[in-house]
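pinned: reference chain
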Amino acid sequence: MQNYEYKVVPAPNRGKKARGVKTPEARFANGIEGVLNEMAAEGWEYQRAEMLPSEERSGLTGTKTTWRNLLVFRRALSAASRTTPTLATTEPTPATAAQPVVAATTPSEAAAPEPNAELIAETERVAAPSAQPAAAPAPLTAIAGDPEAPPEAIPVPGPGARRMVSDDGVEELSPVSGLTAALKARASRGKPDE
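pinned: its structure tokens
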């Protein structure tokens, strides 16, 4: 079951003017900050920035590849929008799939529902009770650096620090061995023939 929904938006190409923002770098950062804050206000969590190829038409028959900068966001699905498997969406078991389908011979047989169908469809799955005794209450924790935290609270890193520590990174760090075919083709086109 999927716990998150994702949204991909184009990264801004230009900076955003604002009072006190003078340099091009600061304007660009202000534009990115605006997009991140707008998405966060809607409940979206920033994941990463991607640069992906996009093929576009060029002229009547040609195509060209344009690289697009995108921002990837995610948010947790609400309990109402999560899909729970039902009797209709689950795959048949091998025992039921192997049985031949027999057509009803009379209209009354076709209209008569199976007697336990409603009971099966309405039955909720119940988890087995835990064999372990109830655990002691969890210790009091607070985000590290919180000035309002009680002194006996155990400091824990905030969500930003946890994400930074668990970041899997976007960059590809594997080394490139030799020249790729695209680079060789480009190099051969650029040389004048002697």
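why pinned: The mean pLDDT is 73. Residues 130 and 136 are 15 Å apart (CA to CA).
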